[in-house]
């Protein structure tokens, strides 16, 4: 990634002249990816649900354009792809965090929204990418590692954690030569994580610092660095890449 964000003297930035679309790009991993893509020479197009937050993000990365809408409104999502200013090079799908609830407390409407966000949204984005993303371009999905081990409250997330790598492999065949890869993130210190944990966020950070093999907490920029690498490296498709600081080893 050093090459992508800090090119050697005389070398062009790795994404120069390319366009990166970040769905869910107003904060967290999405915004960090947009920022690194800009540093690597790309123009960026951001989407998000919150108009004000999206405007701030666009100003921070000098975005080419923005679109404020809920990406799980699939009719609006299709319209967005149809209105893109020509063919783009890469699309990243980020968004809301996973839904946790013990079996007895599962809200089926929330569970459906979670499945829409993490399973149906990537399917729809892959569909709309055909003809909108250049051959050899990429689709980068964001998943997680939290549901790999069974635990109370993980009924929904365990299905998505297991299903997204399989979906990624299939999409890589179905929409080839567009490349499809999945980033499986562990705990990432984002504004969303802070909102979900509330007053417990400081204790969680300290616990991770003391137990993770890397002895620090994963930041959005860590995930973004790999996302941009997947855009640059045209040999990579159909794979899942963990970004968890070694959490799964514990």
Task: Explain how this protein is built.
The chain is of the alpha/beta class and 250 residues long. It has a single domain (2-149, 170-244), classed as Rossmann fold (3-Layer(aba) Sandwich). The protein contains nine helices and seven strands; from the N terminus they run αβαβαβαβαβαβαααβ. Strand 1 (19-23), helix 2 and strand 2 (43-48) form a beta-alpha-beta unit. Helix 2 crosses helix 9 (220-232), helix 4 runs parallel beside helix 5 and helix 5 packs parallel to helix 6 (155-174). The longest helix is centred in the middle third of the chain and has 22 residues, at 108-129. The model is unreliable at 1-5 (pLDDT under 50).
What is the H/E string? HEHEHEHEHEHEHHHE
**Poorly predicted regions:** 1-5
Radius of gyration: 18 Å
CATH architecture: 3-Layer(aba) Sandwich
Task: Just give the CATH class.
Answer: Alpha Beta
The assigned structural class equals: alpha/beta
Please count the beta strands (DSSP E, at least 2 residues each): 7
- Given the structure, what is the number of helices? 9
Distance between the termini: 27 Å
As laid out across the biggest beta sheet, the strand order is 3-2-1-4-5-6-7
Biggest sheet descriptor: 7 strands, parallel
Tell me the β content: 15-25%
For this structure, the CATH topology is Rossmann fold
Task: Based on Cα principal axes, name the global outline.
Answer: globular
Helix amount, in percent?
Answer: 40-55%
Give the total of domains.
1
